[in-house]
Design brief:
The protein has 337 residues and is of the alpha/beta class. The strands form 3 sheets. It has a 6-stranded mixed sheet. It has 2 domains: 168 residues, Periplasmic binding protein-like II (D-Maltodextrin-Binding Protein, domain 2); 100 residues, Periplasmic binding protein-like II (D-Maltodextrin-Binding Protein, domain 2). The protein is built from 13 helices and 11 strands.
């Protein structure tokens, strides 16, 4: 009986392996260009994002759209910020819209990859992981009325710290956000080298998990310095979460694109167009978005991953970033106690 069971289990394993191998081979055979995309996606038109499936039977047209915003200190607060927009998205698409409060960048990417997340705002660095590992298609960004957008990498320390410039980080305890974060890790690793400082070699890197954690950690003395996103610091100061007078900006970069907004590649083309329309025609006046982000932006502007995310891809390439399941797991870094 035991031997028979082992044979059965072994046979099932062989069959599953063959099915997986056939699926991977089939995907590869059906696609002439993939770039950095995972094997299940294809980029025939060369725009660097996953193509909508040619087979309409593979399109998703859910009765409920799940929406998520990039992980923050308190996801529940941001559900209220996006309430009016989600109502408008529901009106434009004819679908119910449900909030998903992601606890990590990895959770967001995994949710979209598995088909549980349809529309999202994904942070700058993780956007590239979402595109390559989850079939995420960025199409919009928060911007000002004149179409300008962006945030800066800022290196912060405590007001009375003896750290005056980037080279003073040597031998210090510095908070980075997560491995995939642009301003919180990828950009500092690429840009600080030109200033004679190499993270993990010249100073100790401690991953905090979120920009909020890095900022509060520096303010409270848990870390001596931290590279963070200027947009997050500005919001925290405006809300009174942190006192700007307690911090000092040592150095800042040129602007980067902020959080991208987009959808899953396999939503039906008609639904994709309705989602685009919702973002690009939403009026922020008197909404939670205006209250939360009004000093930085007042509408959504259209973008493409190919154009606006080029500097981010260059930075990640400089850091030899690999888009794999193992790399995705590293996005789960949590704050150290």
């Amino acid at each position: 009986m035991g031997k028979q069971l082992c044979k059965t289990v072994s046979s099932v394993a062989v069959v599953l392996s063959l099915v997986l191998l056939y699926s991977l081979t089939s995907w590869a055979a059906d696609c002439s260009n993939r770039g950095d995309l995972d094997v299940q996606y294809c980029d025939e038109n060369g725009d660097l994002v996953a193509d909508t499936p040619k087979d309409s039977s593979k399109w998703l047209d859910p009765s409920t759209l799940v929406f998520s915003y990039t992980p923050v200190e308190d996801p529940a607060v941001y559900e209220n910020v996006f309430t009016e927009f989600m109502e408008y998205l529901s009106e434009k698409t004819g679908k119910r819209v449900k909030w998903y409060g992601a606890e990590s960048y990895a959770a967001q990417v995994e949710a979209m990859r598995s088909g549980r997340l349809h529309v999202a705002g994904i942070s700058t660095g993780p956007t590239v992981f979402g595109v390559n590992l989850a079939g995420y298609v960025p199409m919009s960004i928060m911007c000002k009325g004149d179409g300008t957008f962006g945030y800066k990498l800022q290196l912060i320390t405590q007001k009375d710290s003896d750290i005056k410039e980037v080279k003073d980080l040597k031998g210090r305890k510095v908070a980075h956000v997560t491995p995939s974060s642009n301003s919180g890790n990828q950009a500092p690793r690429a840009l600080f080298k030109d200033m004679g400082v190499t993270p993990d070699v010249d100073y100790e890197v401690n991953y905090s998990g979120k920009h909020d954690n890095s900022i509060m950690g520096v303010a409270n003395g848990d870390y001596e310095a931290a590279p963070i996103a200027s947009s997050v610091l500005e919001r925290m100061v405006t809300k009174g979460v942190v006192n700007n007078d307690d911090l000092r900006i040592i150095w800042e970069s040129d602007p980067f694109p902020t959080t991208s907004y987009g959808f899953a590649y396999n939503l039906s083309p008609e639904l994709q167009e309705k989602i685009k329309e919702a973002f690009l025609t939403f009026n922020w006046k008197g909404t939670g978005l205006e209250e939360e982000f009004g000093k930085q932006a007042d509408k959504f502007c259209g973008i493409t991953f190919e154009n606006e995310w080029k500097p981010i891809r260059i930075i990640q390439n400089e850091n030899n970033t690999v888009y794999s399941q193992e790399a995705l797991n590293q996005l789960k870094v949590k704050k150290k106690k």
